[in-house]
Each structure stands twice: as C-alpha cells, then as structure tokens.
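Hey, quick one: can you model this chain's 3D structure?
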Amino acid sequence: MEYLHSFFDDKITEPTALTVGKFDGIHKGHELLNRLILEKKEYGLKSAIITFENTPRISLNKDCTPSLITNEERMFKLKSEGLDYLVECPFDDKMMKTLPEDFIRILVERFNMKYIAVGSDFRFGYKGLGNATLLEQLSTKYEYEVKIIDKIKKEDRDISSTYIREELLNGNISLVNDMLGYEYFVWGRVVHGAHLGHKIGIPTINIVPPDNKLVPRYGVYVTSTLIDGKEYHGVTNVGMKPTVTDERRVGIETHILDFNSLIYGENVKVTFKSFIRGEQKFNSIEELKKQMNIDKKKAIAYFNK
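Sure thing. Here's the predicted structure for all 305 residues.
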C-alpha cells in the first residue's frame, strides 16, 4: 500500500476506484465501501481511500473524544485488506474552503478517479455544501462512475462511529463488534507494570493505550492477544487498577493463558471478545487473586464453548 499525505500536491497516475470519508472508526458501512472499491481491481482500477490526519469533528466541533481507531491502526487494517493507496491529508483551512466542484475536480485530475463509492449522507466541499446528488450530477461532466449506498442500521439506528463509541463506553462489546464487522482491538507496546501478577501466580502483560484511542468501559474482558503473528487466548482488565495503585493512568493488563515468555518492548494487539464484569476495588490482594481466578475460568469457558 502506498501512503500519501497531500490532497493538493500528491498525484496518482493509475486510474482509481476510491472512497472519501473521516474513517475515524472503520465499521460495517466503511467495510462495504472498501469492498466496492476493491472489487474494481478486476477492471484495472487501483483502490484508494481519501481521509484525514485529524478527524473533522475535532477541527469543526472541538470534540476531542478519543477515536475508535488510531491512524496507525487504520493504516495497518487497510493495508491488510489489500488497499492500494491511502491518502491521509490535513483537514485544514485550505481543505475546508475548497468549493464542492473543485473538490471533485481534484479527485479526477490528481487522483485519476474513475469510480467513487460513498454513503447517502456524504458531504464534501466548503461548509459541506456538496452532497450525493451533486456528486451524481457532476459525474457526466467529469466522466466517473458513482455508487451511493444507504446507511446500514442496527436496532433501528444508523450504524455510526458515535453510536459505536456510546456502546463501547457501556461495555456492550458484542454489539460493538457486530456493528464494526470485526472485533475491537488496541495496539500497544508491552511495558513494565508492578509485577504483581507474577507474585500471585497470574502473570500479566501491560500496555498503555495511546491518548487518542478510546478504550472500552473499565472492567474485565475475554480477549485474544496477537504476538509475533500468533494469537493467544486470555483475560484483560481495562482501567485504573484501584486495588493496587492510586495512579490515575488507564492501563490494559492481560493474563495470557498458557504463555510465560517475557515480551517487554514488543508491540501486541489485544482484541476484545466478551465483557465479564465492571472494574472493582477489592479489600485485599487475596480477594483480587480469588476474583482473577474466577475471571480466568470464565475466559477458559468462553473459548471452550
């Protein structure tokens, strides 16, 4: 996958099938758009996504809520799906002031757009004045094919990043995974913790999520962990570890079943499968150990069902 940075200066010489969007949380709607542009490879078109370094909701609405997916995670996921080009450009003043038709003209002239797939709520150009209707109207003038898809719904509500964030913070991980079309995950580097897990016979690995990554509701989850291309089953605590520390730092601590290697400094992927319980503060380390063993048994039962 080739990675580009500028909407106004970069150029793709090969004919493309592309989509445009915030992609600050890749869900089933985005996956459908990706599938549509990837299918055009058999017709000789390269697949491309135009998105942003900084999500527009921060620039426009000063909404600094962490995202469902970081830029690095997004790049990894799209590359693994076979995307040819990812254009991750700044959502800056120049972008915001680009007139709708100029926006389309740039897609055609600089990114060689022959096909575009977007959702029915797609808006583009200055003050979002461009919409799906205008996109279709301009297709004859600029000679490209358009595919407009309806919003995908779940429980009578449009699937959106906002909806998914709400359910993630409620701990409804099964619903979140269903709306995403894949299991929610966090990438992180393994760091040293308090080594309490080793002392009580339940060793764990610790990762600190990026500041701009939304973590699930604080609590305990059934998870899997990807290490060096191999997946391991486990149980993960997300939160502040109130029983053992007063530090106000969010951590992700995972006990990996049948795994004892030291992997400090390595990058791992923790995938969330099922919610077990909310975060608790115990009266003693012994109480915590007892509950951790109960959580461990529930994780084993999950994988053995």
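One thing worth noting: Residues 202 and 292 are 8 Å apart (CA to CA).
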